[in-house]
């Protein structure tokens, strides 16, 4: 199992994906707490819908969504 994880992290795109995933999760956690405490949680819901729409549009236009 550990050998398989080491093989995965040999690829640079996996390393970048993990780093970006950690940074996005930290930013989302900090932003989410602030929005909920200020009772702006609907802004977060709107942002998720915008992100989903952008992904769907990119897929429909045959563009790379990432």
List the helices and strands and how they pair.
Elements: H1 2-8, H2 12-37, H3 41-60
Helix pairs in contact: 2-3
Helix tally? 3
Q: Mean pLDDT, as a whole number? A: 85
Task: Work out the radius of gyration.
Answer: 16 Å
Beta-strand residue percentage: under 5%
The tally of structural domains comes to: 1
Describe this entry's structure for a reader.
With 66 residues, this protein is an all-alpha fold. It has one domain (13-60). The chain has three helices and no strands. The two termini are 29 Å apart. The mean pLDDT is 85.
Give a summary of the structure in a few sentences:
With 66 residues, this protein is an all-alpha fold. It is built from 3 helices and no strands.
Descriptive keywords:
66 residues; mainly alpha; single chain
